[in-house]
Predict the structure.
Amino acid sequence: MRIYFDHNATTPVDPAVAQTIARVMTEEFGNASSVHHFGQRAKAVLDDARSSVAALIGAEPSEIVFTSGGTESDNFALRGVAEALEPTGRKHLIASSIEHEAVLVTLRALARRGWRTTFLPVDASGIVKPEALAEAMTDDTAIVSVMHANNEIGTVQPIAELARIARERRALFHTDAVQSIGKIPVDTRALGVDLLSLSAHKFNGPKGVGALWIKRGARVTAILTGGKHERSRRAGTENVPGIAGLGAQLAAKKVTTEGARLGALRNRLEEAILARVPGTAINGAREPRVPNTTNISFEAVEAESLLIALDLEGVAVSTGSACSSGTLEPSHVLKAMGLPSPRTQNSIRLSLGAGNTDAEVDFVVSKLPAIVEKLRSLTGARVRS
Ligand SMILES: Cc1ncc(COP(=O)(O)O)c(C=O)c1O
């Protein structure tokens, strides 16, 4: 039995999406920029996908720029706005301290080139306080970037309120919605943002394809230059099969029913672990949270050892952000939340997705108490129940 509880790292491609990709690869192989029949057919595939993505997030098709995924979309938003607004004298960038590395490392790179940066704090709930943003804003703030849902703990940020604060100071607002799309409703107009990143492989689409939504009129300079693809906003022959497979329509259809099902499954998993394994606690606020994610600390247990022990039982979980796995660095998200150092190293993330069942939750719950007890006995740790 193999159980996959790591859907925030990536998801399996939906079989219907995989079929679409395979068909487009062989049948619609034209270059979407070509004038002839083959090119026009490929362009029609792009147009369809663009309309699906736009419908999913409450946008206009012309506002969607296809990219190679979440990392490129985040880079494009931040570097693109920084470059576009540099001549206006706006030299300040703001992000939350619990962003994905795609945002954090990009901001640090811009800081080395003379930009002022502010990283907003969060408290133990893992939620950015609007007052902290209001305090950090200055007249030269170019862009504020706060993720919609956090990849490690799942908390949903008060984006509409934060975006309103940025708008009052005429700064642009970017949200990384890579972890919210397909899990909770995402509507650009309701959120009131200017730019939004998404990535197909987080909602049962293929890897290496995503999009940046750029509100009409927002000033963003292209970072990939060359041909006039994507209305000169992102050069490079489009990944037509990948874009077709982005499967936005599919995610839109499933979000309401699947969200409720996963929420019930996640809550049951969480409650059972807290009840049966002594010395456990949920990291971050329980609400508002995406329905599929939980992050739990296990007192006196090394997260890496727990991950390996679970893997030996056929259960895949994560110690946090997939990109930082392989390093033993404690999670920057849990650190920013002020969790004490043993707890940042004792925490694992379980993220559910399409296909996960009650029986899988039961299996994990039945295995965990003994695994944890064994790991604790190896180090001689004593934990009160
Ligand atoms: C919140 C968030 N942003 C960005 C990314 C990067 O997306 P991609 O893997 O498509 O580059 C991830 C992936 O882990 C993510 O969770």
